[in-house]
Amino acid sequence: MTDKFGVLGKKSSQRTGVERVVNAPLPTVYGKFQAIGYLDHDRGDEQVALVYGEPGAENVLTRLHSECLTGDAFGSQHCECGDQLESALRAVVAEGRGIVVYLRGHEGRGIGLLGKLRAMALQAEGLDTVEANVALGFPVDARDYKVAADILRDMGVRSVRLMSNNPRKREALVENGIQVAEEVPLLIEPCENNITYLRTKRERLDHRLPHLDAVAHWS
Question: Mean pLDDT across the stretch 26-45?
Fold first, then answer.
């Protein structure tokens, strides 16, 4: 059985890389997407790309969104993840075409949900997000974006306009054969609950967050 995005497959223990498994319509409050499900045979993760319109191959407006249960589902103000996901979905609909690759296995910059919650508990005691990961024996950032490049390549995408403030995402895509024609900032208005977290991302993780200068008065 096939669809316009390719063969619908089943898991095979002999395979490596990503396998396209299913394509299903997904109506949302933002617009009607196609949800393309993938299996990452290397890591065992199930992945999904939300596709709007006919993205094409070049200069595709794209978001690589790391899974964040607390932000995406619970509306946590500890981070800006939920707002970034919503903004990205709205942006591709406004553009008329685009892709949001939702990267499972990226919770807490790759340390998992329980690891992230433990890190958040340490942050409540005064450590920043980098210090908390290190104190728990975790890498500062354990995410791998190769699977995202593999998914984009499977969909025939050669270059993207990447919605991100994180330079590592651009570097990872380029290293894995996807060109980045433009980096599109995805800046979310900070609040008092996440300003310290965002400043740490800018100062210690090199995220491009120039809008934080406007709230320099917050301690």
Answer: 96
- Whether the CB-CB separation of 162 and 183 falls below 8 Å is answered with yes
Q: What is the DSSP string of the chain?
A: -EETTEE-----TT--SEEEEEEEEEE-SS-EEEEEEEEETTT--EEEEEEES---SSSEEEEEEE--HHHHTT--SSSSHHHHHHHHHHHHHHHT-EEEEEETT-HHHHT-HHHHHHHHHHHHTT--HHHHHHHTT--S-----HHHHHHHHHTT--EEEEE-S-HHHHHHHHHTT-EEEEEE-------TTTHHHHHHHHHHH----GGGGGGTT--
Cite the active site residues: 141, 143
- Phi and psi torsions of 51, nearest 5°: -115, 130
C-alpha distances in Å from residue 16, one per residue of 41, 43, 44, 68: 5, 9, 10, 26
Question: Which residue ranges make up the annotated binding site for Zn(2+)?
Answer: 68, 79, 81
pLDDT for 213 equals 82
Mean pLDDT of 132-151: 96
Q: Which residues are known binding-site members for GTP?
A: 63-67, 84, 107-109, 129, 164, 169
Residue 205 has pLDDT above 70, yes or no: yes
Residue 102, beta-bridge partner list: 48, 65
